[in-house]
Amino acid sequence: MTEPTLDFWFEFASTYSYPAAMRIEKLAQAQGVRLNWRPFLLGPIFKAQGWDNSPFNIYPLKGRYMWRDLARVCRDLGLPFVQPSKFPQAGLLAARVALVGLEEGWGAEFIRAVYQAQFAESRLISDPAEIQAILVALKRDARAVFERAQSDAIKNRLRENTEDAQRLGIFGAPSLVTADGELFWGNDRIEAALAWAKAAV
Question: Which of 139, 145, 132 is nearest to 101 (CA)?
Fold first, then answer.
């Protein structure tokens, strides 16, 4: 029997990707679904839609609602939450480091740590020193990881991920795509996406 799989597309600047990233792995394991972490960049996707900023900044009413809603979501999940002092934050370096970690087996732990730094501690994840501190806390060789993260192979992989997301019709994060190509958008669609992934096998 084929193992059900689910691709989890996330962007470090995405607010609702925070609670999704913190809970999706345990949910997938409980359902027997193999989870594929897929970091990508929303910037090119937003640009294709004519946006030069987060829609939560472009539409202030939507942004105010989002911050209040995210606080409620985190409270209900028992997750700490502090609105970042800057939003959105550039997640390019973090995404490249995540790809290195996913190849080496510590990616999921790093991803959760970055989201916690940004949305629970209001740290500036675009600052290489903050990413270095996270790597040190995870007992990783930050210098070696940064060197790999700046390699052409990793840069190209992130670019390809973003292009793949565009081809799949992904317009925001978090997004979830099953093996048969069904697209789900949002933290609140994780359970539905896992159920579909199992049924699609």
Answer: 145
Question: d(Cα 86, Cα 193) in Å, to the nearest integer?
Answer: 31
The DSSP letter of residue 10 is E
- Name the residue among 48, 43, 162 with its Cα closest to residue 99: 162
Looking at the structure of the chain, the number of domains it has is 1
Q: Of 105, 145, 106, 124, which Cα lies nearest the Cα of 12?
A: 124
Q: What is the CATH number of the domain that holds 56?
A: 3.40.30.10
Which tokens in the block code for residue 17?
């990707």
Strand arrangement of the beta sheet that strand 5-10 belongs to:
34-39, 5-10, 175-178, 183-185
Tokens of 196: 């579909």
The domain in which residue 167 lies consists of 5-199
Residues shown for the chain: 201
Predicted confidence (pLDDT) per residue in 54-66, tens digit: 988 889 999 999 9
Residue 62's contacts (CB-CB under 8 Å, 6 or more residues apart) are 55, 56
User: pTM of the predicted model, to two decimals?
Assistant: 0.95
On whether the CB atoms of residues 124 and 130 are closer than 8 A, the answer is yes
Sort 144 into a burial class: Cβ within 10 Å, 0-12 / 13-18 / 19+.
exposed
Residue tagged 């970690």 (tokens): 101
DSSP element (H, E) containing 29: helix 17-31
- Reported as type and span, the H/E element at residue 76 is helix 60-77
Which 3 state secondary structure label does DSSP give 40?
coil
For residues 104-118, average pLDDT: 98
Please tell me the distance from the alpha carbon of residue 201 to that of residue 199, in angstroms, as a whole number. Answer: 6
